Amino acid sequence: AFQGKEKFHKTVRFAQFYFIDSFILLCCGAEFHLLSFHLDTTKDDLKRYKQRSLCKLVQKFPMASTMEITSLSAVNDFYSYIVLTAGSNRALEVFDLNAGCSIAVIPEVHARSVHQICQNKGSSFSTQQPEAYNLFMTTAAGDGIKLWDLRTLR
């Protein structure tokens, strides 16, 4: 395990690898952080206690007008620039990390805060039409599941 010099002001709620394990995404309060990392796997008996693995902040992405991110989804299995976040304000926000900004906000996605976002990552057992990768689902306690299309945001 390794830790960067960055101290988080709130509890880290979600963390995952991103962009085919090139980065780490993690949520802290109303923002998510994009971190780069390097794991040093060399063995040196004389310097075995010296930490040489690195983790550094690339960019912070704040979610608009929310107190806390309640869910985050990003595909790691293939190159995708899209990151979806849901906040305590019941909104869903779409970020394009290639552009480095938020590209859409959908207010009042559910009657309660979204607690799960699931993007279509495909399957090694079947083929899909390319349009199927634009689909994602959200769910909130007591409000069922909703299927969304990134192209229309409906």
From TrEMBL:
Matches recorded under SUPFAM superfamilies: WD40 repeat-like
Coiled coil: none
Record-linked Gene3D superfamilies: YVTN repeat-like/Quinoprotein amine dehydrogenase
Bilayer-spanning residue ranges: none
Protein name (database record): WD repeat-containing protein 27
Higher taxonomy: Eukaryota, Metazoa, Chordata, Craniata, Vertebrata
